[in-house]
Amino acid sequence: MQGIVLCGGKSMRMGTDKALLNTTGITWAQSAINKLSQLPLQVSLSVNEGQYNFYSTAFTNTAVIKDNSSLQLHGPLSGLLSVHLQYPLEDIFILACDMQLMETHMLAELYSLYQTNKDTEAYIFSNDNEPEPLCGIYCAKGLATILKMHQQNNLPRHSMKYMLSQLTVHYMPINDNQKENFTNFNSPADLNEG
Fold first, then answer.
1. Is 152 exposed, middle or buried (0-12, 13-18, 19+ CB in 10 A)?
2. I need a surface site. Which of 59, 110, 136, 194 has the fewest CB within 10 A?
3. Distance, CA of 96 to CA of 123 (rounded, Å)
């Protein structure tokens, strides 16, 4: 299984590359790497083409995978399917770089669910019956299905939630005390609230 930190967003609302923010002594990207590295995973960074050169130099101990332009996709799905193209037989555990309150024990719980239930194509937390697609496990078989749909122009929407609607998914509900773990910091105002 590959562990992937999603860093390729445009960070337009934040005004600067979120993955390179440093609010705890290390960058957000490195914080997410450290969390995923607690599991038995090979961890890489997913970046867009404009980020690739800088990240390849700045993160010398971590593989950096850039979005595959041939997919003609944007957003998290572009990063996920780009990694799938590079590692077509591997399942992928993704974590968005801006989920800075995610705790390692939550990642371990999802990984444990994956290990004990090998019957579905994705393992995703659910928050009030809504999926949290930016922290989850996507199996190679399901990603191959999505990639084929996209290549055949049968994927009308490119959102992560729509993709999940096309897969068999094992959902892990979270409780009220765990909701803050799934906070996405998208703007300077979000940082001030956090």
1. exposed
2. 194
3. 15
Higher pLDDT, 19 or 34: 34
Structure tokens at 136: 């989850």
| Range 23-46 average pLDDT | 94
Rounded CA-CA distance 133/90 in Å is 18
Residues 6+ apart with CB under 8 A from 88: 140, 144
* pLDDT tens-digit readout, 11-20: 555 567 888 8
192 and 150 in contact (C-beta within 8 Å)?
no
Which tokens is 28 given? 């957000």
Stated as kind and residue range, the H or E segment containing 161 is helix 160-165
pLDDT digits (tens, 9 = 90+) for 82-128: 999 999 999 999 999 999 999 999 999 999 999 998 889 999 999 99
CB neighbours of residue 163 within 10 Å: 26
